[in-house]
Queue: 4 jobs
Job 1
Amino acid sequence: IQDAYIHAIRRAQHFIYIENQYFLGSSFAWKADDIRPEEIEALHLIPRELSLKIVSKIEAGEHFVVYVVVPMWPEGAPEGGSVQAILDWQRRTMDMMYHDIAIALEAKGIDASPKDYLTFFCLGNREAKRSGEYEPADHPLPGSGYEKAQNARRFMIYVHSKMMIGTALH
């Protein structure tokens, strides 16, 4: 699958759109601020291939955009250790990619944001309470995740797809 993705990334001409349950990888290129990236072993190349594709297009004077859709947080309790680790690894992946793009923009003297070339959409749903809405007889336990979700009215949108669309010339 990685080889197919890399082939498609390298052939893309104008944009790439990706949906995935998780978006992390290329840990060998992460900043080693408080971890040892080599111990994470999120080594697949897709995030780095994407940032290098954008960099090559910037260097060629062409515009290229990558859109990535992921859920706001992975399945599980948002405060749980595994979910927090995944979110941290996704953040590190995004940081590495934006850093690559920022360096390329600076080198070309282009006054633009890396977000003009790479955008992450972290899907969630925030619902307003409606009159007449069902309310359970029992109230959530104070401080529980359920109580927090009810108070914030923020709910995850589950993204389970693994999809990539790109533009390529034949």
Note: The mean pLDDT is 86.
Job 2
Amino acid sequence: MRVFSGIQPTGAKHFGNYSGGFRQYAATQERGEAFFCVVDLHSITVDYDPAALREQTLDLAAMLFATGLDPGRSTVFVQSHVTAHAEAAWLLSAVASYGQLGRMTQFKDKGDGREFVSAGLFTYPVLMAGDILLYQADAVPIGDDQRQHLELARDIAERFNARFGETFREPTGIYPNVGARIMDLQEPTRKMSTTGGTPQGTLLLLDPPDVLRKKIRSAVTDSGSEVRRGDDKPGVTTLIDIMSVATGETPGAIEERYASGGYGPFKADVAEAVVELLAPVQARYAEVRSDAGELERLLAVGARKAR
């Protein structure tokens, strides 16, 4: 099986990125030939500083390795180092529908209220389709918020194949059973995000342990003290999902264990589970990121393989 996924280097990475992305990458690299890409070209659709973007690209590469990607098993590279990605975006734009691009919810969210909205922000889903289709990916491990983009990639592949002959595979998504979309701890009807979320409601992967504990202790919960998942309890549902991701325990088992314990002990245990999960990630990240030369060497090797 051929696996591909990509992640943008802008914004500090948070628990939602880990749940929907990083942990899936590490798991799926065992299932076949795997390609994982730091999609820096996607990051230039909004205002950016080139020097900062280069550093953020290395930061993200270090996090990919820290969360379990093995450069001996997976091809890890930077999107702009493989020019075929930009070329594919232009070629595939000829079979992408203007109307379909206009319906992309992320375009509407990111463009809403901006004085200047770049054409790149509108067309970048075509670049994303190219990212995936170039590698003849069978499967794409992603979070729930990327379903619409993957469907566009499938539509583009189908349309291209119909016009020009069988060329691209039509990939399927791999979504986590739990934690496909982690919500903000302070506003649990919105997804966790460093750009659209709240600072106190976003668990950053590099937050110190005491900061993680404080954020989880102050998480918004719901009326009553029953620890259970449900549409009427988005705050508690988010905490249950976070604990399930951190421990591997099923949401049902967590609900049963804390059925009558109240929110206080539950939050404390969620916090400790997250701290325990992230401690080795943070240590590995510090080690990998401290050697920029080796990090750049690994990415150069990955780019050669990808090309």
Note: DSSP finds twelve helices and five strands in the chain.
Job 3
Amino acid sequence: MNRQQKIESMVNAELDVAFIELVNESHNHSVPENSETHFKLILVSDDFKGKSKVARHQKVYGAVGTLMQEGLHALALHTYTSEEWEQTQQKTPASPNCMGGSEGA
């Protein structure tokens, strides 16, 4: 099972997921080809009702925390309840461009 599949599996095991989209954005960063180090997670769950953004992120990081010690470098989180997701018209912010890290040297 690759890292992307592990993230999806771990999140689904911890939360009642209505929608999940996990995008591997590693290719946008200065990492080796085929890396699985940088992801964007769009997650819709009514488990987030009444929870702050910080509490939502803590819940997700609690589910995948072990992967952070195994090479997962970045996980951009966009968390919504079903109602919030409808209000956004199912649109998430674009990820910022990589600042280059070692590429700028």
Note: Residues 25 and 71 are 14 Å apart (CA to CA).
Job 4
Amino acid sequence: EIIDLTESLQIATTRLQALNDSAQTISSSLELHQVLDRLVMNTSDVMGVRACSIRLLAAGGERLEVAAVFGLSQAYLDKGPIELENNPLAREVLSGKVVNIPDVTNTSLLQYRDFTVQEGILSMLSAPLIGKNGPLGILRAYSDERDRFTKDDEFFLMAIAAQGSIAIENALAYQAMEALDASKSKFIRTVTHELRSPVTVTRSLLRTITAGYTGEVNGQQKDLIERAIRRVDFLQKLIDDLLDLAAGKADLKSHDVSGPLPL
């Protein structure tokens, strides 16, 4: 009994340390693929199991797609789509439950049971990845032993899934911000390129007039045209700055765009 208690304490200590290490590891990056890859590798290693995977809900929420995997063959991953209407295990897990299947040969929850057996998987443990606005996907551990997973394993995988859910949402938010920045840059480039041509033409025509090529210009007319040229020149500088900003190399100290327009 003393030996069993010592082993239990060692396992508990190892897992607490693993939770701490996992939190630090998955929070060290905002790149989604890096976060997920680290999560499945760490989980598989700490639990001492054959494999681990993460499947995330696709847009529309009707199917799950493989997002990260460790220890599974490509043939197993290519077995077919995981559609919620055909996969009772996925539906049960995404409802918020940790599902322990002690023997994959004796369950009705698996959509691809024969493929799972061929892969050498005999038991599996699944935990939901839950975000602020609902389920994100499933974290799953696989073993080549029957009755591999205990209640402690269930609590541990749920804790890992809770950490992973936060990291995934942060990574998705970062990904969305990058996409938004790219869209904004593209919009800026499009608008400024469209503005550049008429501004250049307008400046050229005004300078042609002030040079006297279209006839004599009196002093008052010349003054008004030169004021218009200064406005156009200022607009050209703004366009150039916007193009630099879209390219990520702007130095907005060149002039104060918040100040009054030149007269």
Note: Strands lie at 51-57, 63-70, 82-83, 99-101, 123-131, 134-143.
